[in-house]
Design a protein that fits this description.
three-stranded antiparallel β-sheet, alpha/beta, five-stranded parallel β-sheet, 10 strands, 220 residues
Length: 220
């Protein structure tokens, strides 16, 4: 029950943000979003057709958004998005990849269209400081557990960089439910909700619409 009532303000290892910096209504209503994902495979086929539909729907909510999808979802384009400081929505696969060597963070990588893994360490090195990042991938909260520090993975790479808010999943979510969740969440943001209120509204609506518990309860 406390998950619905409490939000931790200080976690081990995270940078101290200025007072009031967690309030993002003004930053997000008129923000230029970066919508990234829907990678292509080596043969040019879509790996995640649901992600492509998801990002297209979000582009209608954020008409000023910059899209890096399909063939344009490359390491260079994603690096630009991370450096921009803009809010990001990322819809792709999250993979464990031995090429992501790190002494601390789990060897996790986002799947891009150019074949190269974009590791959690790459995110940490770029130090993105965004008002909000939506990690619309299966198990995006995943990481290696370290006592007194929690799960160290992609989520921690964003938080330790100074990103203020993250929306993540604890386990895989069915494609249709994920797309519906994204639209509900961004609709609420566009109406002026804070990220936490938008997430609460999203999960309540998904449950009311009959989506399985496993889908709507995966989000944090």
């Amino acid at each position: 029950p406390l998950i619905e009532l409490c939000t931790p303000l200080i976690l081990p290892g995270l940078p101290e943000l200025p007072a009031g910096s967690g309030s993002t209504q003004g930053e997000l209503v008129d923000a230029q979003w970066y919508l990234c994902g829907a990678p292509l495979g080596p043969d040019g086929a879509q790996l995640l057709p649901g992600a492509s539909r998801e990002l297209s729907a979000l582009a209608r909510i954020h008409p000023r958004a910059r899209l890096s999808t399909g063939a344009s979802f490359t390491a260079a384009a994603f690096t630009d998005a991370l450096r921009s400081g803009s809010p990001l929505h990322i819809a792709t696969h999250l993979l464990r990849n031995d090429a992501c060597d790190s002494t601390r963070l789990a060897p996790l990588a986002l799947q891009l269209s150019d074949g190269a893994p974009f590791c959690a360490t790459n995110v940490r090195d770029l130090a993105p400081r965004s008002a909000l990042v939506v990690l619309s991938t299966c198990e995006s909260a995943e990481g290696d557990f370290v006592d007194a520090e929690g799960l160290l993975g992609l989520t921690r790479a964003f938080l330790e960089s100074g990103t203020k808010n993250l929306l993540v999943t604890l386990w895989p979510v069915e494609d249709g439910a994920a797309a519906r969740a994204a639209v509900l969440f961004h609709d609420a943001l566009a109406r002026g909700s804070t990220p936490s209120r938008a997430a609460q509204s999203m999960t309540t609506t998904l449950a009311a619409e009959g989506y399985p518990l496993a889908d709507w309860s995966a989000y944090r």
